[in-house]
Predict the structure.
Amino acid sequence: MTDKFNPSKYPKHLGKRDEVTISHSRSGGYDSFTVIWYSKGKRHRKSKSNPADADAIAKEILKKIKTGTIDDLILTGQERNEYVRAKEHLRDSEASVDMACRDYAEATRILGGDYLMEAVRHYSRTHLKEFPGVLIDDAVKHWCRAKVKQGATPDYIKKSRINFNKIRSVFNCRLEDVTADEFIVFIDEHHGELAPASRNNIIECFKRLVNYSIKKQWIPRDHAFTLEGIEKYKSASAQKEVFTVEEMKLLLQNSRPEMLPFLSIGAFAGVRSSEIHQLDWSCINLDDNEIRIPESIAKTSQRAFKFSDNLRRWLLCKFRLRSDTQSD
């Protein structure tokens, strides 16, 4: 008990309406100062052995009553246990209970549910894991060798190399260092004169390289999100011209014999020109009127289809013309 303590001042009332009271009692030779207040019709008490501590608590409670936050001071037994456990969980952290609760609430709001631990584990796998990284030049070499082993056509690999070389001519760096904005600027400034389809081919090659590097675990998996910022260019819808019967007849009648198979298959069978370039006569069965596009040539997968007698006659015409030329 301090020298300034005066028992005659108790009970002490605080507030215009005596909202808070400090009472004094003595038991077993010890003084006790009890702060008393009411909230929601219930009487609440807090006891201290020092009058200065009791005064400080009383003033804080009175302030809470005036601001309408008095209930924040009242904890049930369960709430008190939860608070103690929360403090224990944060023992090795610099975060306060208030900060931890705020961040948790914001994280669940952003994630749309209680998926915080799943998000943390995903971030740990994709960002905290050590990835070796890869230079674009090395990634291209690995990709081409892998495609050769998988049986990709030489034409496919050749066209891919052309587009890769365009990328390597500007980006002499690690693949993961290339951002979507940088790649878009590269396309627009260095290849803006190309047709939209040609620019899209360069974009597709870059995406293949990124996805291949992710599978090889050279770069983080979430680097694929960078690709979402690279949109394809829209090409102006050019009106396709269709030959009339008479126009197609004149074209075939006046073509060189070696051009007849290419023109007639394209006209009557609808085979892609890139596939016709790689066809040989072993793929064409004139007895059954069937063309077979092997997997090594097809853009998607192997396919076979019947063709009309009209195409068969033009293909046979090629042999007759060649025979006539050789006999002359």
